[in-house]
Amino acid sequence: MTAPEVAVTAAPSPSVPSTLGQDALDRAARGERLDAAELESLYHLPLPEVAAVAHGLRLERRDPDVVTFLIDRNINYTNICNVGCNFCAFYRTKRQADAYTLDYAQLSHKIRELEAVGGTRILLQGGVNPELGLDYYLGMLRHVKAHHPTIRIDAFSPEEVLFMEKAFGLSLDELLDRLIEAGLDGLPGAGGEILEDDVRRKAAPARIRSEDWFRIIDAAQRRGLYTIATMVIGFGETYAQRVSHLLKIRAQQDKAQREYGGNGFFGFALWTLQTENTRLAGKAPGATAHEYLQQLAVARIALDNLHNLQASWPAQGFKVGQAALYYGANDLGSTMLEENVVSAASGNGRHQATVRELVRIAVDAGFTPAIRNSRFEIIEWPDVETILHRAPSNPEAGRGVGASA
Ligand code: SF4
């Protein structure tokens, strides 16, 4: 496939009056809502000043002592995909030797490993595989509910839902109802990247457009499904495009809180573009740790109606992930007993964590760790003393260690 034309410069920095940024930051510190120009001005202020306000808002909006995380497993039921995003190193065509589609027995094997370490949810996502029929999807959900009744299923990105909608001739509402009836609990908001079509067209010409992404998320929220909002930076997008992405999410959250009984986005996950083994390698600028932390802080200030922000240790590594707890994040995501998509394009970050590792990150940063479910409700307080004083090599020390299939 021909290499795409992708902007190679980092986000441009148009000059803005310095007083706008300072005034905006003062307003944010008072809990006031910022508009697009004000949010854009924050990128031109010293990061420690923006971070201090973001962290202050995090302390006000979530328990100031607690950092949460989830024990879960990402299961990618197929890597066959016909969308072919330029930033994806995970997908295969059906003729490639390592193309796969899991059968239900393989799926159960992976879930039993998760159950053995106390996990409570699977993130079930895959490529857009035109060989699969509706029965495969419905059967997969029914199989998990029948054989693993304590496991919550958050499944299918808006991209996969769009495929099903078109391929199976169902309206979106009918499709979601069928999936919910079969066992779907949530629709993770994967594939958000930057919800500006100029950016999306360059990075992935066949990728779901932002209008469809929001249409599908909106329908899921209306039906009471769990969703989260996602963002990826480093495509060469401008600050204005990043702010536009955040404001669209904030507007959707306002709508969900107003019209769907508060069932909007439960969390927000930001990470940086990983390009290793992809067609964007050497062509997209990516984002440094400074840019990541800056973007996280701006997101905390922008998203005044969405209170759980995740630290991205999988893309940033544990050290930057821990620092993120002082730039607006209040959550460490999940242990990710298995992760295949980000890891396929990244040699830098970590792709799974033990409970011991996440507990240590939280404790050393000055917080009390808590295990949550996917709706960010605390379900367990880990025994910190016992966990941290065990040898790391002891399997009992870290549920979730080294068990990927
Ligand atoms: S990111 Fe998803 S939709 Fe895009 S190529 Fe990879 S698996 Fe397919």
UniProtKB/TrEMBL annotation:
Sorted UniProt keywords: 4Fe-4S, Iron, Iron-sulfur, Menaquinone biosynthesis, Metal-binding, Oxidoreductase, S-adenosyl-L-methionine
Record flagged with keyword Iron: yes
Annotated ranges, domain Radical SAM core: 67-319
An MF annotation (GO) of this entry: oxidoreductase activity, acting on X-H and Y-H to form an X-Y bond
Cofactor binding, note field: Binds 1 [4Fe-4S] cluster. The cluster is coordinated with 3 cysteines and an exchangeable S-adenosyl-L-methionine.
InterPro entries: Aldolase_TIM, CofH/MnqC-like_C, Cyclic_DHFL_synthase_mqnC, F420, FO_synthase_su2, rSAM, rSAM_sf
Catalysed reaction equations from the record: dehypoxanthine futalosine + S-adenosyl-L-methionine = cyclic dehypoxanthinylfutalosinate + 5'-deoxyadenosine + L-methionine + H(+)
The protein's required cofactors: [4Fe-4S] cluster
Enzyme Commission code: 1.21.98.1
Residues engaged in binding (3R)-3-methyl-D-ornithine: 157, 312, 334
Residues the record lists as binding S-adenosyl-L-methionine: 87, 193
Residues involved in [4Fe-4S] cluster binding: 81, 85, 88
Enzyme type, top EC level: oxidoreductase
Location of the region described as Disordered in the Swiss-Prot/TrEMBL record: 1-21
Gene3D superfamilies: Aldolase class I (3.20.20.70)
Classification via Pfam families: CofH_C, Radical_SAM
GO biological process entries: menaquinone biosynthetic process
PROSITE patterns found in the cross-reference section: RADICAL_SAM
Annotated transmembrane regions: none
Family: Belongs to the radical SAM superfamily. MqnC family.
Family matches, as NCBIfam families: CofH family radical SAM protein, menaquin_MqnC
HAMAP family per the UniProt record, alphabetical: MqnC
Functional note: Radical SAM enzyme that catalyzes the cyclization of dehypoxanthine futalosine (DHFL) into cyclic dehypoxanthine futalosine (CDHFL), a step in the biosynthesis of menaquinone (MK, vitamin K2).
UniProt-recorded name of the protein: Cyclic dehypoxanthine futalosine synthase
Protein's organism: Deinococcus reticulitermitis
Gene that encodes it: mqnC
